[in-house]
Amino acid sequence: MVAALCANPAQGQWNTTNGGPPIYYNLGPVGIGTTAPQQTLHVDAGVGGSTGGFLLQGGGDNFTYTSLQISHTDWRGGYVTPWIDNLVHNGINYSSIPNANGGLDGSLQLYTVNYMPLQFGTDNTARVTLASSGFVGIGLTNPQHLLHVAGTIGAEEVVISSTGADYVFGTGYRLQPLNEVNAYIQDHHHLPDIPSESEVKKKGIGIGDMQTKLLAKIEELTLHMIQAEERSNRLEQQVKDLRDQLAGFNRASESTAK
Fold it and tell me: How far apart are CA 5 and CA 11, in angstroms?
């Protein structure tokens, strides 16, 4: 029961008979537990209040350590209770929105049931979709990859994990001769171990895998250039040796002629 004690039409106070906090009305704002409400509705549980705050509950028992709580009995008979916490617990300050079974861990947790996706949208259109599979879609609602973006991605830097292609420099690696590479290109119209244009259009390419393949080709090209330089150096030395021999032969001929 609530007994009303009205001071005047503009102000009033209602005291509860069970010792609960009084309700104050002061020129518009309403205060519960405070005589100086600062907002249209101001609830003050006082220091150490564990069941204070604002509670909207359609069923189930009261919960403690909540600042804002909305609860109801769902179709399965269990209590689903999202709440917002802003409190000190065991010396730690928490501000969180845990799920129905969550603790005071300062986390933000949102859940769906029955394999339904979690979506965020604007202008009545889903923009970001988290599917029940865990795949995330941006700009589409049937994501086929862990992150599926329908459109252009802009980034200052992208870091890709790759195995590299150092195997090209291994002692057991066979460097394909350029005449074989040329024959393969003439027959297939693309480099060996590199997907063709039609394959890329049909299946796409993995950036990490393609980076490894391209790095392998760069390393093979480097080895070919090293071999070409070695051959060039040998030819230059052979030419120099022939010139020295020819110069010696000329000197010997001139000496004989004298």
Answer: 10
Backbone angles phi, psi at 242, to 5 degrees: -65, -40
Task: State the Cα–Cα distance between residues 185 and 39, nearest whole angstrom.
Answer: 77
Residue 23: CB atoms within 10 A of its CB come to 19
**pLDDT grade for 45, boundaries at 50, 70 and 90:** low
* Sign of the alpha-carbon torsion through 72, 73, 74, 80: positive
What residue ranges in 97-252 does DSSP mark as E strands?
A: 118-122, 125-130, 136-138, 147-149
pLDDT digits (tens, 9 = 90+) for 142-185: 799 999 999 999 999 988 888 889 999 999 999 999 999 999 99
Cα–Cα distances in angstroms (integers) from residue 250 to residues 125, 244, 254, in the given order: 91, 10, 6
Q: Of 136, 86, 130, which Cα lies nearest the Cα of 111?
A: 130
Q: Among residues 178, 182, 193, which one has the least CA distance to residue 228?
A: 178
Contact 21, 31 (CB under 8 A): no
Q: Which residues contact 200 (CB under 8 A, 6 or more apart)?
A: none
DSSP 53-115: SEEEESSS---SS-SEEEEEE-TTS-EE--EEEEEEETTEEEEEB--TT--SSS-B-----TT
- Residue keyed to tokens 């986390």: 107
Please list, in sequence order, all residues whose beta carbon lies within 8 angstroms of the beta carbon of residue 38, skipping any fewer than 6 positions away: 29
The two tokens of residue 5 are 């004690």
Contacts of 188 (CB under 8 A, 6+ apart): 196
Contact 129, 121 (CB under 8 A): no
Residue 147: what are its φ and ψ, rounded to 5°? -135, 115
Q: Are 30 and 37 in contact (CB under 8 A)?
A: yes
